Amino acid sequence: MIRREAKRPKKGGEKDRERGSSERERERSGSQSGLTMRPRPIGRNPHELYYLRMQRTREKTDKMEKSKAMRKLRVCVATCNRADYSKLAPIMFGIKANPDEFELEVVVLGSHLIDDYGNTFRMIEQDDFDIGSKLHTIVRGEDEAAMVESVGLALVKLPDVLHRLRPDVLVVHGDRFDALALATAAALMNIRILHLEGGEVSGTIDDSIRHAISKLAHYHACCTRTAEQHLIAMCEDHTRILLAGCPSYDKLLAAHHRDDYMDIIRNWLGDNVKEHDYIVALQHPVTTDIKNSVKIYELMLDALISFNKRTLVLFPNIDAGSKEMVRVMRKKGVEQHPNFRAVKHVPFEQFIQLVCHAGAMIGNSSCGVREAGAFGTPVINLGSRQTGRETGENVLHVRDADTQNKIYHALELQFGKRYPCSKIYGDGNAVPRIMKFLQAIDLDEPLQKTFCFPPIREWDISQDIDHILETQGALAIDLGGTNLRVAIVSMRGKIVKKYSQGNPKTYEARIELILKMCAEAVFDAVHLNCRILGVGVSTGGRVNPQEGVILHSTKLIQEWSSIDIRTPISDALHLPVWVDNDGNCAALAEKKFGHGKGVENFVTIITGTGIGGGIIQHNELIHGSTFCAAELGHIMVSLDGPECMCGSRGCIEAYASGMALQKEAKRLHDEELLEVEGMVDLKKAESVGAIHLINAARLGNSKAGAVLRTAGMALGVGIVNILHVVNPSLVILSGVLAAHYQAPVQQVIGQRALTSAQRIQVLTSDLEEPALLGAASMVLDYTTRRIY
C-alpha cells in the first residue's frame, strides 16, 4: 500500500511563485517546439504582475473608503446644565438635520436632573431629542466638597455609558466641573473630544477647569480670535482649532426679533411692565471666594431694592456657595417683593427676548458679557467671575463691588441706555462651520494628540537670574516751584533712585533738563534690573490729563501754561506718559500706597508752600468739567481776608499755606515780636520762615500762636465745607505742615460740621514723597485705574 504524504497548505507568496514558475516553463517549452503561441496574458511577466497587484490594492482601498464613507460619524453630546445646553442645542439640531452623515447620542447629567434647578432636562425632551442616558451625578451640599464628590460620582458612572454608546466623538462645552469629569473619562477611554469655547479667560477656577479640558481635548471650536491665539499659545495643534463663533449666536441673532416679545415680558414680569423698563439679574457664586461673592450678591439685591425697578431674578447655578446665596435672597424677601420675580429657569428662546428688551442686565453671568452684547443691552458686571473676558462697550465692570452705593451708581449710569450691537462672539454661522469640522475628522488618524511646542534652542533651556529678579516700575517726575525731581519707583511704591535739580526759569531749559534727567534715569534703570513701564508727571496748576497739557500754571513756575508736556517726553523715551496736577497725584498716592488704600471716598489736602489736594469719589479721581476740581486751596473762608496769589481774597491758601505763614513770620520778626526765650537768635539778614513761627508758638509766643490758630481755623472751616459738599469718609493731610494742622482741623470739624460729618477722621499722611508716588501710580495702575 502506497502512503501519500499530506500536503502542507501553501502560503500566498509560495502560490504566486509556483504559478509564475509554471507559466514561465510553459512559455519556454512553447518556444522550443516552434508551436504558434496565443497572445500572452496581460500581467504575467514580473513588471505586469507588479501593476496587477497595485490595481488590486487600489480596489481594496477604494472599497474601504467607500465603506468608511457609508459609515456615519457617531457623535455624543453631553450637557450638564441649562447654560451649556443653550450652546449645545444648535449643534444638536445641526447633527440631527444631517442623518446621512451623523448619528446623535445625547447624555444628560448634572443640574439638569435636579428639581431645585428646574428639571431642565425636560426642555431637551421638548426639543424632540432622544436622551440616551440620564446620570444623576450631583452630590447636594453646594460647597467645595460636594463639587469634588460630584466629579467623582460622574467618573464612576460615565465609563459604563461611554462603553455602551461607543461614540466616535464626544462634544463637551465650557468650564463646568461636570464637563471636566466628561473629558477625563473620554480621554482615558480613548474617545475623541471636541471642546467648545476653549481658550477663553474669565479669572476664576473656571479658567483652570477650561484649560484642563482643552489639554484633554483633541479638537477645539472656539469663539474669538483671541481665544484661538490662547489655544495656540497652549501648544494646541492649529490644524485642529476651528474659529467658529458661539453656537448660541446662531439662534439669538436669528430669533431675537419676535413680534410676541411683549407677551413674553408680561408673562414673566407682569402686565404693567414696559420695554426697557425692567432689569434681569443673574449672579453665580465664585468658588474661589465664596464669602465675598455672597456679600456681593447681598449688596446687589439691596441696590436693586433701592433702585425700585421691576426685576427678574434667576436662581444661581449649583456651584459651591449657591445655597448661601439663595438663603440671602429669601432673607431679603425677594420672592414676595412686588418688584421682583424670582425664577429657577427660563427657556432660552424666551430668555433671549427678556435680555434683548431689558433696561439693564446685572450680575456675573457670562450671558451678560457675551450674548447681551449682540442686542446692545447695557450690562453691569459684578466682581471677578468674568475678569479677562472680551466684552463690548455695553459692559460696565464693577470689579470691586464692595458697597451698595457703588452698585446703585452703576445702575444709574447704565439703566435705559442702548449700545451698538456687538458680534465679538459670533456672526450667526457657527453651526455650519462646526458641521464641516466634524465631517473632516479622520478616524484613521492616531488617537494620541500631539502638542506643538515652540522650538527651544539648547542654550536657552535655563533661566536667567537677571530676568527673574527684574523689577517693574515707573518713572515719576515732580515739577515744583523750586526743584525738578525725577525718581524710579517700583511696583510696591519703593523709590529705587531719586534725582533732583533746580527748576529752570524758562520753558526751553526746563524741557531740556527733564529729558536729560529722564534719559539718565532710564539708563540707570537697566543696571538696577528695573523695567520702566511708563512716565508719570506731577506738576502744579490746572492740567488736562486726557491730553497731557498744562493749561494754567501757578505763579511759582514761569513759562508753564498751555504746554503739551506729554508729547516731547513720549517721543524722546518711547514710553507712554501720564500727566496730572500735584494735588491729584497726592490723592492717587494715598489711594495706592497710603491711608486711602481700599477707601471708596476720601479727600487729600496738601499743606506746603501752597494748599492743594485731590478728591476720590467712588474710587475715581474727580477732575471736573474744566479740570479745576479739588482746587481746595482756593476755597474762600472769608469775604475780606488777606489777598491770595490767585487774585482773590480770603482763600484757605492765604491763611494756612507755607507762604502765608512765612509772610506772617516776617511781619512779626520785623516788628520784633517773633523771638522769645529759648529760640535761636535770628539775625535780620537771615531768611525767616514758617518753621520759626511754629517754634515761637511752641515756646509760648502768643502772637505766633494766634497766627497758627487762625490758620488752623481757616483750614478747618474749608475742610468742613468740603465735608458738606462731597461727604468723604476720610480726610488725609499731607505735606510739611500736616502734623501741625491735624489737631486744630479735627477740633473745628467737631465744633462746626453737621452731626453726621463730625466723626469723619483726619489723618496725617505717612508717605514721604506723595507727588512722586502719585505720578508713579498713574503708570502702575494704568490698566485698572479707569475700571470700578
From TrEMBL:
> What's this protein's family per the entry?
In the C-terminal section; belongs to the ROK (NagC/XylR) family.
- According to its UniProt record, the EC number is 2.7.1.60, 3.2.1.183
Listed under subunit, the entry gives: Homodimer. Homotetramer. Homohexamer. The hexameric form exhibits both enzyme activities, whereas the dimeric form only catalyzes the phosphorylation of N-acyl-D-mannosamine.
A Pfam short name: Epimerase_2
Q: Where in the cell is it found?
A: Cytoplasm, Cytosol
**In what residue span(s) does the UDP-N-acetylglucosamine 2-epimerase domain sit?**
100-438
InterPro entries the record matches: ATPase_NBD, ROK, UDP-GlcNAc_Epase, UDP_GlcNAc_Epimerase_2_dom
Could you confirm whether the keyword Iron appears in this record?
Answer: no
Sites binding Zn(2+) sit at: 634, 644, 646, 651
GO terms for biological process? UDP-N-acetylglucosamine metabolic process
Please provide the record's keywords in A-Z order. Answer: Allosteric enzyme, ATP-binding, Cytoplasm, Hydrolase, Kinase, Metal-binding, Multifunctional enzyme, Nucleotide-binding, Phosphoprotein, Transferase, Zinc
A GO term, aspect molecular function: ATP binding
Q: Where is the composition biased (Basic residues)?
A: 1-10
* Protein name per its UniProtKB record: Bifunctional UDP-N-acetylglucosamine 2-epimerase/N-acetylmannosamine kinase
Can you list the GO cellular component terms from the UniProt entry?
cytosol
Catalytic activities:
an N-acyl-D-mannosamine + ATP = an N-acyl-D-mannosamine 6-phosphate + ADP + H(+); UDP-N-acetyl-alpha-D-glucosamine + H2O = aldehydo-N-acetyl-D-mannosamine + UDP + H(+)
Bias (Basic and acidic residues) ranges: 11-29
Q: Which residues form the active site?
A: 582
Q: In which pathway does it act?
A: Amino-sugar metabolism; N-acetylneuraminate biosynthesis
Region named Disordered = 1-47
